[in-house]
Amino acid sequence: MSDGICGYTGRLLRVDLGRQAWSVEIIPDGVIRGYLGGRGFTAKYCYDEVPPGSDPVGPANKLIFAVGPLTGTRMPSSGRYAVGCRSPHTGAIIRSISGGGWGAMLRAAGFDILILEGIAPDWVYLSITDQGVTFHDARHLLGKLAEDTEAAIAHELGNPRAKSVVIGPAGEKLVTFACIQTERRSAARGGVGCVMGSKKVKGIAAFGAGKVKLFDQDRFDQMMKDHIKTNFKGTYYNRFHHLGTTAGIAHKHAIGIHPVKNFQRGFFEGISPLLVPGIDASGYKVKESGCWNCYMQCGSVFDVPDGTFKGRGYENPEYETMWSFGAHCLNADFAGLLAANRICDDFGVDSITAGNAVGFLMECYDRGYITKDDLNGVELTWGNVEAMVEVTRQIVTRGSRAGNWVADGGVRNAARVIGRDSADFAMHIKGLEFAAYDPRGLQAFGVGQATSNMGAHHQICYPVQELFGFPEQVDRFSTEDKGRHAVWSNRYIMIFDCAVACGFPNAFTESRLDFDSFPEWLYCATGLEAFHTKASLDAIYDRIWTVERAFNMRNGFTAADDTMPKRMLEEGMADGKSSGHVWHRQPLLEDYYRARRWDPTTGVPSRALLHDLDLDGIAADLAHDGILQD
Ligand code: SF4
Question: How distant, in Å, are the alpha carbons of 151, 187, 365, 530 from that of 160?
């Protein structure tokens, strides 16, 4: 499709919502070579185009969608997209990634990047084809649930093959952690759906039939065929295909890093119904599901035939949501968990933040810091599944006083309102709620989380060394050399974020955590030597990381934000296989800053590092703002 670099359309679509106009730009070669795709593009354009101090829900914030050189190719699971902006939930930069097939369709329509800017005068949805953009009145879609919105747009366009990203009612109401949905998949974290709502965009349909030219199409196709042949129906496939990430609970609970009761404990006596045998025994599963062009099909669909949570077509929650509405709330009722997850999908919010917040409110209720008057009369006791589902509904609809506190900024904001010592156990970093891992039992993971540019994002530093002994065996409780391990983990996550492709069918395979194939695949797709070696890719990943860090620092974040709630720093884990441990901030932070070549005290990237990463312009910006001092 492009006459430029293979593997890219090379085109950026810019939509001015205020004027209801659009234009097409050529993506500079330097941006492609320097930032690869996906998260690299969202970071680059966020830094360049969203001025420091911009109101996240104001016209100056931009919503940037991007795909990568592997999106929409024959690589399995390559229908994904990345989306980034300044987060209304945290104030920091955010990137969120979603499954489904919309990313492939954006490419087929002829674009690698879509930037929404300004605010529409009234609610619209957009349709994008190779002919450009059409603006449609969306006022009649307001209040529709996410899936119904997708169906309505497809019907109105008369094109069942068009794919849409949409927001639910929570995005319309500017819930700060609203997500963007497509095909029951979510770009979940950090409030990208809130920003889309602030721009009065209910949905974006894309359709096209274009193909991106690859550098060596025959070899690429053969490599993909070989890859699938090796892995399809193998051991890992069989385990993952059955219930996806849900299957990971048993291991993580067994080693005491699956947090229980708002991180008060590391062991949950009642967890059995949430483990694979318990889910199988429920008899609720009716079929498998999954994303576009993925042989793994890691999703499942459940019908609950009777009881309080009777319903059909529940999508299986991911590992993190199984936790947030499970052990975190001391709940083992799988049907209730499915119902809470469904509310999040329908209304369009991040189910990790929502469940984390319900557990936080349970602890506040238990301590007498809030009462049922704050919850429309609901008695939010630990493990009360009906109360858990009802309060989830209150949050996504802004239907109670406590629901509003959470909707306006998650547990950080709720703790501000509730006061007393509630901030000590409001489980977030930089405003983004923890997911299903307790850093007291995973020290490298902890420093990756504390220093994350996006807060406690579960996809920023996945501790495979500490969890699986790969690529090195390490003591998960030790602080030694954990800066290096966390940086390694930061980098490998970037592969999927920038490529853009799902890690499960491509790296977590029979050959187990096979990240080394990616440079060859990227080279075959693009022909660029810059993507052909691990070392040159690492430099790109570090550039992206540094740009994000600079964006945050210019928005007021400092080393003081690289921390965790008091519970992690001072309360030893009460029980389980990580019992007695805390997370050791100071030595870990120093080691991480050293590994990153950041100032050991301020955490500011050094001038030498910025120069080596071709970021002298950012060095000048940081110096101008008084952040970088020689
Ligand atoms: S492995 Fe699962 S999440 Fe990943 S692309 Fe396939 S179906 Fe989607």
Answer: 9, 22, 47, 39
Domain boundaries 439-501+533-624, CATH class = mainly alpha
> Rounded CA gap, 62 and 76, in Å?
30
> What does the domain layout of the chain look like in residue ranges?
11-206, 241-433, 439-501+533-624
CATH of 11-206, one of 3.40.640.10, 3.30.1380.10, 3.90.1030.10, 3.60.9.10: 3.60.9.10
Residue pLDDT, tens place only, 491-548: 988 999 999 988 888 777 665 557 788 899 999 999 999 999 999 999 999 999 999 9
Q: How far is the CA of 316 from the centre of ligand 1 (A)?
A: 12
N residues, the chain = 630
Which atom from ligand 1 is nearest to the alpha carbon of 505? 1
pTM exceeds 0.90:
yes
What does the alpha-carbon distance between residue 72 and residue 500 come to, in Å, rounded to a whole number? Answer: 9
Atom of ligand 1 at shortest distance to CA of 289?
Answer: 7
Query: HEC profile for 345-409?
Result: HHHCECHHHHHHHHHHHHHHHHCCCCCHHHHCCCCCCCCCHHHHHHHHHHHHHCCCHHHHHHHCC
| CA–CA gap between residue 621 and residue 445 (Å, rounded) | 31
pLDDT in tens, 317-330: 999 999 999 999 99
Q: State in Å, rounded, how far the first CA of the chain is from the last one.
A: 46
Pairwise CA distance, residues 372 & 355, whole Å: 18
CA of 342 to the centre of ligand 1 (A): 19
The best mutation among 291, 300, 497 to test binding of ligand 1, ranked by most ligand atoms within 8 Å of the C-beta, falls on 291
Q: Is 463 near ligand 1, meaning CB less than 6 Å away?
A: no
Token reading at 436: 């299903």
CATH architecture of the domain with range 241-433: Orthogonal Bundle (1.10)
Q: Are 264 and 574 in contact (CB under 8 A)?
A: yes
